[in-house]
Amino acid sequence: MSAHLALTQWVPFAAEELDKNKVTPGVLGFVVFAVLAVAVWLLMKSMNRHMGKVSFEETPDPSTPTDTPATTGK
């Protein structure tokens, strides 16, 4: 209970120092932003690595004949 009374005595002092026209996110906001930026960078790096493993060449369908007149141009 005494801690609560001590905190309530400091509230008016904090209100005098707070400039209502200038509010910044502070160190915690910077840390959160930096963690999000690093996470996005790691995700992009992982995505590039996974996209490099993908083969985009389409293999021909083995059920279609390869020497049809439509494919030879006659």
Question: Topology of this structure?
Answer:
Elements: H1 2-17, H2 26-53, H3 69-72
Please, could you describe this protein's structure?
- The protein has helices at residues 2-17, 26-53, 69-72.
- It contains 3 helices and no strands.
- It has 74 residues and is mainly alpha-helical.
- The model has no long low-confidence stretch (mean pLDDT 79).
- It is rod-shaped and about 90 Å long.
Order of helices and strands: HHH
Kindly report the average pLDDT value.
79
User: How much helical structure, as a percent, in the residues?
Assistant: 55-70%
What is the 3D shape?
A: rod-shaped
Descriptive keywords:
rod-shaped, 74 residues, mainly alpha
Compact overview of the structure:
With 74 residues, the protein is mostly helical.
